[in-house]
Design brief:
Layout lengths: L2 H8 L6 H8 L3 E5 L4 E3 L7 E7 L2 E6 L5 E7 L4 E2 L2 H6 L6 E4 L3 E7 H10 L1 H27 L2 H11 L9 H8 L3 H8 L1
Antiparallel strand pairs: 1-8, 2-7, 3-6, 3-8, 4-5, 4-7
Helix pairs in contact: 4-5, 7-8
């Protein structure tokens, strides 16, 4: 049984060893290389991913070819195109590895089946969804009301250590600033 998966679930709910054995059968452990896509834009979204190791991003490329990063995610975070996944529609976002990564994937069908077999998992995913909603709201409010310097400081606090692992151009895209502006903030 995966110690990582068990510890992650136990942060929110307690399950019996038998329930963990059942739960583990619904997740598939996958490895991806740097620059590999887990989800591509305009494709069906079959899975959501719990990251054990690595750093990933979800983003969109606009019509002018500029990348806009919605989210970074690292160990113990979930990532996907959640709208595409839960609505069972094609994605509007791409999810890509910034470095080699290991994840636990669960399909839409298996997520629903797992929640029907282990009622406490419904609570787990509801709480995780609520946390995600709060984080997204905070991100939108930050983009609307904070200066570039304040957004940078928030980034450093929310993603400790990322500054050394994520290319500066990607951080600039996430913050909604130019690479030059980020350089001034970083110095």
């Amino acid at each position: 049984m995966s110690h990582f998966l068990k510890a992650h679930i136990r942060e929110i709910i307690n399950l019996t060893d038998d329930e963990f054995e059942i739960l583990q059968g619904f997740f598939i452990r996958k490895r991806f290389r740097k620059r590999q896509f887990l989800i591509q834009e305009h494709q069906p979204v079959h899975e959501i991913f719990l990251i054990e190791k690595g750093i990933l991003k979800s983003s969109i490329i606009d019509l002018s070819g500029k990348e806009h990063i919605l989210q970074f995610a690292a160990s113990n975070w979930w990532i996907s195109d959640f709208a595409g996944f839960f609505k069972q529609e094609n994605s509007s976002l791409a999810v890509e590895c910034i470095e080699d990564s290991e994840v636990y994937a669960i399909s839409y069908e298996d997520l629903n089946l797992l929640c029907s077999k282990i009622q406490a998992m419904e609570r787990f995913f509801r709480i995780k969804s609520n946390f995600g909603y709060v984080a997204l709201q905070q991100r939108i409010l930050s983009l609307m009301s904070k200066s570039a310097k304040e957004r940078y400081e928030d980034f450093i606090q929310q993603y400790p250590g990322f500054i050394d692992h994520v290319p500066k151009q990607l951080i600039a895209s996430y913050l909604g600033v130019s690479r030059e502006t980020l350089s001034r903030l970083y110095s």
